[in-house]
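ok here's the first one, seq then struct tokens
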Amino acid sequence: MEAQAAATTPRGKRTRDAIVNAAAELMYVDGVAGTSLDKVLAASGAGKSQMYHYFKNKDQLVEAVIDRYLEQILGNQPAIFELTSWADFETWTEQLLDVHRKASGPIACPLGNLAGEVGDNPKLAPLVDRAYRTWESHLVRGLETLRDKGELAPDADPARLAQAAMTSVQGGLLLAHLRHDITALEDALRIALTHLRSHRS
């Protein structure tokens, strides 16, 4: 995929951010297929020439939206950046739950929405997977830290454990949103932590 143009001035950054934010909101509700570039332009207030300055095609815009979703997701769970103890993993799960305990929750995971829609798209599916792998990478790093400290079994595989935890998170998010019941996510996170702890040293 061709590189996206970077915003080099404060005004340019505001314009690009407005386009990406508008696209992210529309795609969250209407999906990629249901979000036309004309809708994004109308919602963002940007002109067509500005749109095509930053994004050569819709796939590039979707890529930027995926990055924005990941930024928002990780911003809601800051503990994931500093996982140096088992207590930190507890804090991480509580931060995840706090997002979905609000009056509007449980909410759908924006990456999960995209995965369901573009999972068979050879151009876009790898971009969603890359975002998931970035999310997982913070769990991997935390588990490696625990292993280095002697708090995780030497033969434990941090990458596999992180993948299993992510699988629980995504399944819990899906059912919690679908059923409007946070217990699915609570149980999924409890299962994930129990599995991780079963590999304690």
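and now the second one, same deal
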Amino acid sequence: MIPRKIKSSGHSIEVPGDKSLSHRAVLFSALAKGKSRVVGFLEAEDPMNTMHAFSELGLKVEKIGQAEYVFTSPGKSGLISPTKDLDFGNAGTGIRLSAGLLCGLPQINATLTGDDSLKKRPMARILDPLNSMGASIQGIGEKKTAPLLIHGKQLHSFAYKSPIASAQVKSCLMLAAMSSEVSLDYEEEILSRDHTENVFRFMGNQLQYKTPTRFLMEPPYKFEGADFKIPGDISSAAFFLVLGLLLKQGSILVKNVGLNPSRTGILKALAAMGGEIRIHNQRIECGEIVGDLEAVSSELSYAEIPPDWIPALIDEIPILTIAGLFAKGGFRIRNAEELRAKESDRIASMVENLRSLGVEVWEYHDGYEFGEIQMTAKSSSLNSWLSGRSPRILTKMDHRIAMSFLVLQAVTGLALRIDNTSWIDTSFPGFQSLLESVLQ
């Protein structure tokens, strides 16, 4: 097996606020007339870009403390067309959800854009249903990608069965229905993240569930200023949970983490692999389950990851793969084709980087697998792991790829040459300094 460098930790840490909820705090605050207070806002590039975009639309932003803001909105009917393009940087969630909200406001004309990575990401998944809903939106980049040109219109009630389990598609259409005060009958085969549904209910609205994966929302909708308390992001916590499991001994406690069931697939997968993660102080805050997570040094082994777990751990697959390198029997992930539409093609990115380490990986259209890494004289991986080389890691403008291999480097002491770590600031500013503090 791969040698583990770190003997113990015993650290108690907190990770930055949930990125998904930070985006939604901006969007719902913009819909609600009056003041909203947000505590725990993720001050990273992605949600900050969403905040800046809505400040161009008429949302007043006041910073009142560390990760604490007051948003004052004229209400959805008072939002105005921006005088310049709205730049969402690398934020796929920001641009897709904002597009839905803006499409349903007749007074809005806007162009939504982003960085080179965002301009390559698929947008047809929201463009097609939005246009069927009566919207005027088009992707003017190659292959109908961003920039997105929007002429706001009054939309009509809509029924949609999504061909993919995507919280971004679902949330986009929900926000379009909210902004135009029309009904939406939405269905998906597998339950995707339900943060938007939770915030919708927290604001005083109701959903009528026909099945666990199909709901109806109908106006009139309630939007008033609210107090949002955002927990730590489980996607960010996942890096330190895996680090805790890979300690030689001891544990790491990550406090105040969001435990939304549609996001805890990583906990189920790590538990199936033999990882011990204890939940302490579980509670409900702003409609979301929150708790403290303690990851205890564990011996991991191969486990099947069922298809219905994938939507709840899709963003954590890169760091789950790092855990898989230490698993007896190897690692396999399938039914995760959505990975190809993230900040990078994460299937191709992980496969390429693992192969640069000497790991024999089989790539599929929807995932990859590799066998147990045996540190024996006959192992084809041995030379790569222990010969003193410093393999180059290509992060492909993807923050989760960068963070995952930084964790591998920390656990093993391998001298990896990670090409660029600046992408980490899109979701987890201060990650490297926090990682270093845990290692001390």
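notes on #2: Confidence is low (pLDDT under 50) at residues 376-380. The longest strand covers residues 276-285.
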